Amino acid sequence: KNRDIRVLRAPVICVLGHVDHGKTKILDKLRRTNVQEGEVGGITQQIGATNVPAEAIANQTKMVKPAFSIDQIDFPGLLIIDTPGHESFSNLRSRGSSLCDMAILVVDITQGLEPQTIESIELLKKRKTPFVVALNKVDRVFEWEGNQHKDIKEVVQAQAEFAKNDFERRVKEITIRLNEQGLNAALFYENPDPRTYVSLVPTSAITGDGMGNLIALICTMCQAKLAPQLRYSEELQCVVLEVKTIQGYGTTIDVILVNGRLREGDNIVLAGTEGPIVTQIRSLLMPKPLKEIRVKGSYDEFKEIKAAQGVKIAAKELDKAIAGLSLRVAQHEDEISVLKEVVHKDFTLAMKAIKVKDRGVYVQASTLGALEALLEFFKTKGIPYSGIRVGPVVKRDVMKAAAMLEHDDKYAVILAFDVKVDRDAQELADREGVIIFSEETIYHLGDRYVEFLEEHKR
Ligand code: GTP
Ligand code: MG
Ligand code: NA
């Protein structure tokens, strides 16, 4: 079959699961990258996106039996979305899963179902999203002998008695736990009815066992179950993931383009810290295939990009952009004002959903998603917040935080996650007695403030 006549868009596949069960590492194995090792604290704190072309799928599924051929598939590749498993990021798991057509639920075979596994299952059930379970870290099964060049069924069958028993015991245990969640489940090669049973695929992100089977299974399921849903639609569905400065391009935004197309020169409207931003796409970029968009790299430039893809957009005025909401394209000049209102409403709704107290700390983060996660984390720690903002710490923020000095100086602090602190702002803070805590992981930020409170009491 000629690839050019493929009619479906790339399915969006979301990777979900409990913290440290191996979501990012599985994608690293697929991409041949080392994203996970570069993460602060070894945890994912943002949504990621990777374009996986058909050629890569063909390359990595050669060991699958019966033979899997990419020519059976009518879509041009996969767009895979990575999500954080840390409990505070339920907002990003929800956002990621709301964008996807199908999901991979990653379960550490040695740990089984844990709280965020169950939370993920709830999300998938609610949206009726089909999914497969990757029983990951199978290399940790007692005396496991891996072989990434073989079909995983053969690898399982070739295990010595001890390993096989340990493997079977763990699979059985996890199957029972899934049953308790109202799911029928079976190893994919023993699945009696793929329409009603969730398939389990043993994988190892370290040795590569089962990776080919996992990819092949997702592709076959997308083709069988989702073909109508994957018909390309011109109706734009596009979400901003990140705002980043890139050498040579200035401030850029990373977006997930789920449906529709973007063109160089398009007038786009998106949320900004000072109100909706209207600007024109100067460069339309994509990371190289199999590169994680959240990691800086080199980019290819395009005149036009059709969904589904992870895309980087360079344009003027993006330095005040806010990540986490939809991006709109104005087809005509006169649409701009309407779209500005729509974007403004999206933003006000998101901010209104966040309830602030009269007294509490001032919180800032780089993205709306990170801000929501941070506040979720502070709630569990009993830390009240009175002010919030997406964006770098500037003098105005310090002034707002300083207002707490009149009430309770333990709240005259700014907890800043992954944002710059302006020098002016720092100087003002030092003069006024406002303390700025700035960290790159949300839990360190919370912990440092809790320590500060302890000292404060003394
Ligand atoms: P969060 O994004 O923070 O939720 O974690 P994650 O699910 O993306 O897990 P991550 O990829 O960060 O992996 C967590 C740890 O498990 C890392 O130290 C990995 O090297 C290790 N790991 C992941 N997959 C495997 C595997 O298949 N086998 C073994 N032995 N270790 C693995
Ligand atoms: Mg991760
Ligand atoms: Na991790």
Can you characterise this structure?
With 458 residues, the protein is an alpha/beta fold. The protein is 31% helix and 25% strand. It contains 12 helices and 21 strands. A 7-stranded mixed sheet has the order 2-3-1-4-5-7-6, sandwiched between helices. Strands 8-9-16-13-14 form a 5-stranded antiparallel sheet, with no helix packed on it. Helix 3 runs parallel beside helix 4 and helix 10 (395-402) packs parallel to helix 11. The relative contact order is 0.12. The chain binds guanosine-5'-triphosphate (GTP), magnesium ion and sodium ion. Sodium ion (NA) binds next to loops.
What topology does this entry show?
Blueprint: E1 12-17, H1 23-31, E2 48-53, H2 54-59, E3 77-82, H3 90-99, E4 102-108, H4 115-126, E5 131-136, H5 152-157, H6 161-180, E6 184-187, E7 197-202, H7 211-226, E8 237-246, E9 250-259, E10 261-263, E11 267-270, E12 277-280, E13 283-287, E14 299-302, E15 304-306, E16 309-314, E17 328-330, H8 336-352, E18 361-365, H9 368-380, E19 385-390, H10 395-402, E20 413-417, H11 423-432, E21 435-439, H12 442-457
Parallel strand pairs: 1-3, 1-4, 4-5, 5-7, 6-7, 18-19, 18-20, 20-21
Antiparallel strand pairs: 2-3, 8-9, 9-16, 10-15, 11-12, 11-17, 13-14, 13-16
Helix pairs in contact: 3-4, 10-11
The structure holds guanosine-5'-triphosphate, magnesium ion and sodium ion.
Subcellular location: Cytoplasm
Organism: Hyalella azteca (Amphipod)
Family: Belongs to the TRAFAC class translation factor GTPase superfamily. Classic translation factor GTPase family. IF-2 subfamily.
